Amino acid sequence: MISNKKAAFCTLGCKVNQYETESIKKQLSDLGYDEVNFDDKADVYIVNSCTVTTIADRKTRNMLRRAKKNNADSIVIATGCYAQTNAEDLEAIEEIDYVIGNSDKSGIINLINNIEAEKTSQRVIHRNIFDAKEYEELEFSTLREMSRAYIKIQDGCNNFCSYCKIPFARGKSRSRKLESILKEAEVLAGEGFKEIIIIGINLGVYGEDIPENGDLETLLDEISKVDGIERIRIGSIYPDKISDKFIELMKNNEKLMPHLHISLQSCDDEILKSMNRNYNSQLIKERLLKLKKSVKNIEYTADVIVGFPGEGDENFENTRSVIKEIGFSDLHIFQYSDRENTAASRLTDKVDSKTKKLRAEKLEKLKENMQKSTQKRYLGETMEVLVEESKNGNTYGYSKNYIKVEIVDYLGKVNELVEVLISGVENGRLTGVKKIK
Q: What's the burial of 151, exposed, middle or buried (CB within 10 Å: 0-12/13-18/19+)?
C-alpha cells in the first residue's frame, strides 16, 4: 500500500459529478492517500469537470493549471464531462498529465497504480461513450451533505436537446439495477440518514432500458419501504415524465417530499420545438397544475434558458406568462450560450447579449415576487424542518417542500426533525420557533 501520499480534488457541475468524485476519493483512500485541500501541495490532483456552459469549461482549464502551480511535480488528471467531449483540447495543455473521459472514470485508480509502477505512457484514456450499454457501478461511497445523502440511479440521456452537450459527455440512458440502489439506501438508513435525494442525468426514463427493474415510480415506492428513510427527494424531472401514475404516488406516499425541480428551459411552443423538447407549453401547464391540485403545498423550482436562438419578445413573454401562472418558489436562470457541435450552435437567429441580460433581469424580478408570495403563504403555518446546521444560537434547515427555515433561539442537532411555527421572513428565508407540543 502507498503511504504518505496526498490527493486533492476539484469537482465542477452537478451532484452526479460530486457523487462520482466521492467514489474516486474512497478508492484513493484505500490506496493510502490522504485528502488535502486543492490549494495545498498534493501528489495527485483530480479535476472532475463539467461542460454544461462555456464558463464551466473555462473553470476546468483554470483549475487544472492551478494544480500544477501548487506542485510542479504532481500528477494532474482531468476527468469528467469536459474531458470526455474535449479530450484533444485538454491534451494540448502542458500542465495536464492525463485526460480520462467519463467512459473510463472508474479506471482512474488503475491509472494511478500503473503510474506508480511506471507501467504507463498513455496520456489520454478515452473511449466512445456511446459504446457504454449498461450502467457502470462505482466503488460504493455515497455523496453525503450534512443531513442528506444522494443515490445515483441512472446515467446518460437519449433526448439530444439541441443546445445540450450532455449526451455526448454521458452517452445513452443507462439505469442502475434496483437491487443495488436498495442496498445503498439500506446502508445510508443504517448510518442514520433520514433524507435521500435521487439523482441522475434524466431520472424520468429510469427503467426503460431494463424494464424488469420497473419504472421510476416502482423504484421510489421500493425505497420508501426502507426502514429509517423518512424523506425522499427527486433531483430533477422533465414535465412530460409527470404521469398520472407519478401524480398518484406523490399524492399517496408521504415519504415523497412535496417539491420538484423541473427541467423547464422554456414555455414557448416555438422555442420548445427548436430546443428539441418533446412536448409543448400546454403539457407543461396541464401536468404541473394537476400535480399542484393533487399534492398539498407542493412547490416547484426550475431551470430556465433565456435568449435561445430565435427567441423574440413574444416567445419570451409566453415563457414568462406560463411561469407566472404556475408559480415557482425559485428559478435557476441561464443566458443561452452556444455549445460546440450542438444543433443550436448552428442556428443563425442569435439573440444579442443586451437582450439576454434584460430578459434574465425580468425573470429575476418575477422570481423575487414569486418567492415572496410563496413565503407569505406559510406565515402562521407549522412546517416540519430537517436540521442542517446550528450556529450563533439559531438552527437552519429545509421544510418538506424545500424552503429554507431559520429556527430562532433553538440549537438543534443536525439530522433532527423539528416542528416549527412560522412567524416571519428574514434574509430571504422563513423564520419561526420550535412548536411546543
A: buried
